[in-house]
């Protein structure tokens, strides 16, 4: 019993020591150093338009189907950045399959008006599936290339110019890792700027 | 698909190159040798010993060591429970969250003390910055250090010659924290911030988006927690969607970096083991067995996810890759990760006991979802948790040696030590405790009405969710088929009106505690028993455990134990879905 009491005392001191070191000193030191070295990134990589913060370049936004803008992927959370969850429907879910069919139809209806030959076989999977985070900031390059027809037509910009902007806002792989993605928010900001010239 | 195989190949080669470096370092830390960080960490270490009033050189036998482990874990549990239950009166709570209900807090405290990090709650809608930093992040460090300390003690048992001491727990705990976890986490956290992982004490911020909608950006001390969450194979996300959320894992560079963090220590420990017992081939043999199973996991989940799901095909989606599109089952996955990095992550997070996710497991294909379940069902010994993975694997090594001994009719030996009845009995406790918890927990959860309220998906997926929940908690992993619900959150200010279910929180909490400490104590008992044995010289008839033949035998034992235990359960859930195109 004596040994156990000694162990409990030691454990209590150890826990106090580690809580101060790992629960206070460590995160506060990281916060301080991060603020000094990477203030923009540490505070959420915010983007401003005309001096006003419009969001974070890392967090996707809902563009509400506005035809002047590139649209992000379907989201289970309506692009909530403070209440996050997965769609969580299983691979053999009828409900999920019906959701896919609806998204596919909506996407085709929206884009075919500007890209007459568009078929279901050319729709990339990311355009009809919900992302994991609900705020995926990217769409695939194929997805952006389809939407470029609409955005160019509605804004009266040359298609080539819009495709150039898409390429400029495509974030590539890191070395060999990951996949390329087109950042929808920064691309749309660039489009607004282009039209305002 | 060649791009995918290239990504896996480069990752595995780079990891294997890291192993001797970190493995050597870990071995030196276990042996209390001087290392390059000694000038910095040494003074803090000595201060710790003075406060704790321990003499680091004072050895403990296995019972004393186990008692110290349990005393420390018990007080850790009580402190964490207290922090969760009194959250509303603590500082650093910009969103004004209330305190946790008792049943959810029981589950969460059990979860973080056991290195599991199963989460029924969503972090950003439930927990204050204070609770995340002083409660969860502290346990992320020390629960990992406890697992590694027990491994260090077990290795000493294998290496000792007629001794009784397994080392000193307080010294192991302190050294592993100060020389390994804290310095790596410190550097890793800053690397993550530089790439966009947030690190601030401020609360959320409402912005008006480009198209005029409202969006609330949620912040916190994320990077400091993200680093140790992965390095310590904890896995509990600051945000509910874990490493899928861009503020935890913003780009392809952070994704691969986080994968390295998860595997770095578990993959290096077999090398450290080989170095300490004086047989490096033995370390590599264990590494080879682990790597073989890991490679198989990655390959299967990748092929399955690239193929797409029945729900996609029934809706008329084209799931093959073409120029500019990854194709495959992108439901619940992020574009920047694609099929390749989501598949790699799925395998890494379930061979290690991390359980962090960068994609939604509930939406994996049938066979893609079978892989994480199968990985967990080995008892988390394919690299596994920091420390716990290798000590679990060492138990299976002893079992293999025993079975091999039966086959050739010789007394089984490992590293020159005879494996006798007492050790084999204890090994069986260590190996069979968790499967028993999984099967009993799942059966209870699906048989009565108590567990069914947690199920989200209809049909076989609902069974998979239940099986996965108890598989993950018993094996201290923490990943989930996240439809499985233990806490309903209506998203009101301050999390008002949220309700936790008794059954899944309590059963899960008990399963995590037993799944952690039953094998751990059995391992220490085996180590104590081995420490007292003499080492016999190698003879001509000795069955060598560092040979390719042994690696194959070991793989056979690991897979047969898992398959015999879980095959019927696998058939009822993921296999059914993998074999049919039918919708439910």
What form of chain A results from the Cα inertia axes? elongated
The CA-CA distance between the termini of chain A, in Å, is: 81 Å
Number of strands of chain B: 6
Most extensive chain interface and residues per partner: A-B, 108 and 137 residues
H/E element string of chain A?
A: HHEEHEHHEEH
Q: Percent helix among the residues of chain A?
A: 40-55%
Our estimate of the beta-strand percent of chain A is 5-15%
Strand content of chain B: under 5%
Main pleated-sheet profile of chain B? 2 strands, antiparallel
Adjacency order of strands in the biggest sheet of chain A: 3-5-4
Computed structural class of chain B:
mainly alpha
The tally of strands of chain A reads: 5
Mean pLDDT of chain A: 96
Shape of chain B: globular
Helix content of chain B: 55-70%
Structural class call of chain A reads mainly alpha
How many whole angstroms does the radius of gyration of chain B measure? 23 Å
SS summary, helix count of chain A: 6
If you had to describe this structure to a student in words, what would you say it looks like?
The complex is a heterodimer of chains A (197) and B (584). Helix content of chain A is 49%, strand content 8%. Chain A has helices spanning 2-37, 39-42, 94-112, 141-155, 159-168, 184-196, and strands spanning 46-49, 52-56, 138-139, 170-171, 181-183. In chain A, the strands form two sheets. In chain A, strands 3-5-4 form a three-stranded antiparallel sheet. Chain A is elongated. With 584 residues, chain B is mainly α. Chain B has a two-stranded antiparallel ribbon with strand order 1-2. The radius of gyration of chain B is 23 Å and the shape is globular. The mean pLDDT of chain B is 96.
């Amino acid at each position: 019993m004596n040994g156990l009491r000694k162990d409990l005392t030691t454990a209590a001191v150890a826990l106090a020591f580690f809580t101060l070191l790992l629960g206070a000193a460590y995160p506060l030191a990281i916060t301080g150093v991060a603020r000094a070295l990477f203030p923009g990134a540490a505070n959420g990589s915010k983007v401003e338009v005309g001096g006003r913060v419009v969001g974070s370049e890392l967090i996707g936004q809902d563009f509400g189907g506005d035809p002047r803008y590139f649209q992000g992927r379907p989201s289970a959370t309506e692009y909530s950045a403070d209440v996050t969850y997965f769609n969580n429907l299983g691979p053999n879910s009828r409900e999920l399959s019906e959701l896919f069919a609806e998204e596919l139809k909506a996407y085709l209806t929206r884009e075919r008006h500007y890209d007459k030959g568009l078929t279901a076989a050319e729709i990339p999977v990311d355009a009809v599936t919900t992302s994991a985070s609900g705020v995926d900031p990217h769409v695939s390059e194929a997805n952006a290339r389809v939407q470029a027809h609409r955005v160019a037509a509605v804004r009266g910009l040359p298609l080539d110019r819009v495709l150039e902007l898409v390429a400029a806002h495509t974030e590539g792989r890191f070395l060999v890792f990951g996949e390329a993605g087109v950042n929808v928010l920064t691309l749309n900001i660039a489009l607004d700027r282009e039209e305002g010239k | 698909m060649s791009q995918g195989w290239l990504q896996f190949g480069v990752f595995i080669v780079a990891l294997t190159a890291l192993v001797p470096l970190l493995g050597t370092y870990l071995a030196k830390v276990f042996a209390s040798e001087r290392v390059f960080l000694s000038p910095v960490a040494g003074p803090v270490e000595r201060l710790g010993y003075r406060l704790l009033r321990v003499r680091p050189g004072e050895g403990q036998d296995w019972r004393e060591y186990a008692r110290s482990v349990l005393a420390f874990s018990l007080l850790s549990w009580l402190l964490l429970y207290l922090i969760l239950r009194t959250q509303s009166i603590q500082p650093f709570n910009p969103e004004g969250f209330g305190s946790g209900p008792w049943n959810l807090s029981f589950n969460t405290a059990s979860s973080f003390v056991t290195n599991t990090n199963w989460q029924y709650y969503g972090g950003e809608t439930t927990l204050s910055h204070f609770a995340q930093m002083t409660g969860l992040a502290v346990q992320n460090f020390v629960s990992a250090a406890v697992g590694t300390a027990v491994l260090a003690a077990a290795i000493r048992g294998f290496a000792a010659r007629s001794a009784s001491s397994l080392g000193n727990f307080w010294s192991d705990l302190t050294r592993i924290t100060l020389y390994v976890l804290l310095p790596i986490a410190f550097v890793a956290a800053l690397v993550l911030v530089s790439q966009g992982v947030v690190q601030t004490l401020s609360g959320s911020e409402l912005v008006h988006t480009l198209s005029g909608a409202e969006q609330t950006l949620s912040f916190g001390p994320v990077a400091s927690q993200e680093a140790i969450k992965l390095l310590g194979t904890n896995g509990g996300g600051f945000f509910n969607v874990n490493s899928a959320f861009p503020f935890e894992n913003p780009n392809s560079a952070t994704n691969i970096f986080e994968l390295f963090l998860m595997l770095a220590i578990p993959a290096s420990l077999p090398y450290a083991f080989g170095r300490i017992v004086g047989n490096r081939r033995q370390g590599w043999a264990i590494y080879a067995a682990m790597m073989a199973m890991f490679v198989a996991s990655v390959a299967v989940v990748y092929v399955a996810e690239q193929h797409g799901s029945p729900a996609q095909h029934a809706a008329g989606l084209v799931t093959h890759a073409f120029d500019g599109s990854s194709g495959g089952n992108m439901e619940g996955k992020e574009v920047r990760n694609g099929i390749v990095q989501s598949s790699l992550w799925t395998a890494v997070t379930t061979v290690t006991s991390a359980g962090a996710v960068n994609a939604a497991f509930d939406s994996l294909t049938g066979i893609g979802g079978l892989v994480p379940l199968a990985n967990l069902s080995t008892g988390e010994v394919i690299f596994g948790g920091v420390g716990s993975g290798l000590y679990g694997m060492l138990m299976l090594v002893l079992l293999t040696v025993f079975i091999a001994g039966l086959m050739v009719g010789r007394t089984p030996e490992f590293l020159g030590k005879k494996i006798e009845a007492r050790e084999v009995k204890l090994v069986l406790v260590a190996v069979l405790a968790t499967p028993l918890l999984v099967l009993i927990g799942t059966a209870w959860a699906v048989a009565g009405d108590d567990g069914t309220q947690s199920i989200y998906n209809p049909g076989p997926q609902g069974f998979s969710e239940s099986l996965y929940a108890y598989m993950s908690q018993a094996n201290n992993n923490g990943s989930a088929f996240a439809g499985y619900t233990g806490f309903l959150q209506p998203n009101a200010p301050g999390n008002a009106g949220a309700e936790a279910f008794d059954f899944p929180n309590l059963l899960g909490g008990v399963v995590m505690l037993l799944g952690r400490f039953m094998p751990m104590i059995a391992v220490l008992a085996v180590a104590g028993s081995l420490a007292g044995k003499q080492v016999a010289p190698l003879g001509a008839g000795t069955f060598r455990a560092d040979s390719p033949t042994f690696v194959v035998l070991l793989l056979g034992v690991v897979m047969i134990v898992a398959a015999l235990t879980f095959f019927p359960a696998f058939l009822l859930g993921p296999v059914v879905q993998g074999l049919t195109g039918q919708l439910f």
